[in-house]
Structure formats: C-alpha cells, structure tokens
Amino acid sequence: MESFLHTKWISTAASIWIQCTGGASYTFGIYSSILKSSQSYDQSTLDTVSVFKDIGANVGILSGLLYSAVTARRSGLLRGPWVVHFAGAFQCSVGYFFIWASVAGLIGRPPVPVMCLFMLMAAHAQTFFNTANVVSGVENFHYFGGTIVGIMKGFLGLSGAILIQVYSTVCQGDPTTFILILAVTPTLVSLLLMPLVKIHGTSSVHDKKHLNGFSYIAMMVAAYLMVIIILENVLVLPWWARILTFLFLLALLASPFGIAAQAHGDSGPPSLETSRLMYDPEPMPQTKYGEVEEQGEYHEIRGGPDHAKSVASSSDENLSDDRDDDVVFDVVGAMLTVNFWLLFIAMICGMGSGLATINNISQIGESLGYSAVERSSLVALWSIWNFLGRFGAGFLSDILLHKGWARPLFMVITLATLTLGHLIVASGFPGNLYIGSIVVGICYGSQWSLMPTITAEIFGIRHMGTIFNTIAIASPIGSYIFSVRIIGYIYDKMVTGEDKSCYGTRCFMLSFFIMASVAFLGFLVAFVLFIRTRKFYGRIVLRRLGRRSS
Q: What is the annotated signal peptide range for this record (predicted)?
C-alpha cells in the first residue's frame, strides 16, 4: 500500500481531483449577477472585476517561480509540489471568503479596488494548482507531454461544470452560498491530496495504455455532465434525482484511482527510462541554447547576466551531437526570442477573446432573451466545450506530432475556427449562442493545451512553469482589452433605462465582429510561428521522439 501511494499513477489521480475543483474562476457567470446587484455595479465595473479574476487565474509567474524553487531543492521540508498546492489553497480560501462576506453583507461594501483584490487572490489560486499538476505531470510522462497536458487541462476545464453540479445539488438558486462553497471545496481537496502529488521523473513508451484510461474517464465525465446539463435545461429534477446524479458523478470521478491501482499492478520490475530532455536531476549548465532559426542554425544566447554572445553552426553538425538536442531557456532567454512573442501575441488574440466571451456569456444571453436556466446551462456547457478543446488538442496534436506534423499547425487551425465562432455569436440568429459557445469554447480550450506543450518543446522543461505562465499573461491582457475597453464600453453606450441593462443584438454585435477580426490576426501570427518552427520540429523534436522510441 505504501509503495502504491508513492507512484506517479497515484500522483496523477490526485492531480486530476485537484484539477476537478481548481477551476472556480470558470463559474463566474453563476454569481456575477448577484455580485453586480449587491455591489451596485454597472457592466463596465463588473467587467473590471472579472478582468482581475482573469489576471489572477492566468498570471502564474509566481507559481512558476515557486515551483522551480521548491522542486530544485534536494532536502528540507519545503520542497516538492505540495508547497505550491498549499499556497494556492490559502489564497483560494481567503479570497472567496471575503467575496462571500461582501455579497452576504457580513462586511461593509468594499471599494471596487478592494473587491478586485479579493477576486485577484481567489482566482490566483488556480495558477498554483494548475502549475503544480501540469508541470509535475509532464515530468512524469514526458514521452506523451501533449496527452498529459490535455488530461490535466481538460479536467480543469470540466471543473466549472463539476462545481456547478455542486451548486445545483446543494444550493440551487442561492449564488451567495455558492461563493462560500468555492472558498471551502477547492481548499479542502487540495490540502487532503497535495501530499500525493510528487515528481518521479520517469517515463516509458508503455505509459500510453494507462494514460488512455485517464482519457476515457475524462470523456465519460464530460459526456455525463453534458447529459445532466441538458436534462436540467429540459426538465425540473426533484431533489432526490439531483442527489443521485451527483453521487454517480462522484463515482465517475473516483475512477482515476482505479486506473492508478491497475497501472501499479501491471508494472513489474521497473523498465522505465529517464529522458534528459524533460527531466534532469543534475543542475543545468549556465549556457542556454537558443532556437533553431528557419535556416536551421543553432544560436547560443546569454551565458551570463552581463554579456551576450552568439555562436552559429550548421544544423547537421549540431544534430550529430546529442548534447545539443537539449534546448533549455530560462524566462529571460525565452523573451529574447521572436518565437516567444509570436506565441504571446497569438494567445492575446485567442485566449483573450475566448475569455471575454465566457465572462460576458450570461449578459449576452440576457440581452438576447435567454432564460436564467438557459444562461446557467450555457455557463455549465462552456466547461464541456472548454474540456473538449483542452483534451482534444493535446491528444490529437500528440498523434499528429508523431506522424510528422509540427504542433503549431494545430494552433493555426483552431484560431481560424475561433474567428468563425465569434462571427456566429455576433450574428444574433435564434440559438446562435449555443452554436457559437461550442465553437468558441472548444477553440479557446485548445489554446490552453497547445501553448504549454509548445512552450516545453521550444524552450525546454526546466523552466516550463515560469515560461508558460508568463505567456499566459496574454490571456488577462486580451480579456481586459476585449471585456472592458470593447464589450463593456459598447454595452454601456447601448444601455437604455435605469436598470443599466441592454436588450437586443445591438448590445454585443459590434464587439464580436471586432473580436472575430482579432482572432483572424491571431491565426496569421500563429501561421508565422508554424513557418518559423516547422524545421525545428522536423530536425529536433521529431528526432528526440525517434531516439526515445528506439
């Protein structure tokens, strides 16, 4: 039993459970109306608060730095991913508690900047949960980095729908109590399971079988949640039916521990290999290696803080030496490359516009005449589409990568499709929000799976947590521009009456035409990234995959 609790499989199952409750920021649409009314906010003020939620949920530089620090230590109590989880649990409990106390009237109505601080802290916990689970997962299963990132990001995407099922079962129609649940549930789950999340640093080509088991469970949970959400939209379920459906959901969520037990039982004497690319217990040398340019050249960047030098040689010479296959950047070195900024701009366009959509989906539904139940269903179903994008992009891009296609091509395809999704939302035809939310949700979720994996492949695993969380800053930047400066501004200009509400397609049409144009810009930028890195993937990444499988 003790050996079972110290395997990478039980670590994965524990990480999945933490991810299932870690996406509280995705439920903002459930309590945004009560937050708006209780604090007397207009739409622009509510969008400002939601932007601080996005900043907290996506700016994970601190979590990345903390993860790098505590996992690099070889001894001492404060080492390992549990430290990152504990920091996240603390922020989650404090932030949501004060939001609940403000809405419930236990404390005086805080100034808007203070409420923004509460929201920032509550949502910032998500980056700590996510960084610890995703990066430790990649280090434990680096042969299938896209698959494990897709699983972790997928369950995080599902967490919104899972938490909404908690809301429907425990406090349907009482969003104030739901905020208190958000303060308690993710905190308890993380504190209970964080000792099990550890870095084992080993990977085998045979891991795919059991990773597929986790994937099947994720698909089953997503399908079950979708059925339940649709039933709740069509029927009025009695309290006993809601309890039974929730208990069955818990049984499904317990399945990853069964997969972990099966994987542990199937593993005989260890035949695992440790890859230097994704995990190296020894300190890395100070020299960082740069990107492969389109001409196939390798450059050395920044050997120290006070000087920089460049050395170029042919790609054939570099690839003849296995030591040059290990591309490693710190965050400063990565920011000196063109590829970093191409990825950053593409994420502003893709993540930012997608996040602005979910932040305003309840208000969009209200303006188009959707009922309160339909709007709640849209928020919950968004988690399903978000999951499908996160999981599907990781899984399918792994398959395509092993077949010789560079992973950034998948980003190009999803951003082109995102453009279409925004146009559907802008059109305003009957039922457009259901169709548009499917397209936008899947494409938005895809970016959260593709971006961390591409980051690890281009810039290396050693500082992956810090680098991909730095790129993730693009999401709240884009959300602020689109939610506050475009959607909120145009909405408030269209408001009629004293209730500060707008009705009709005119409220959001222009905003989504603008976001469709921005998504198309992201498609063009991602295409440039694909062109720049296709030789890198052909000569370096695919060579690593071939070496590992040999």
A: none
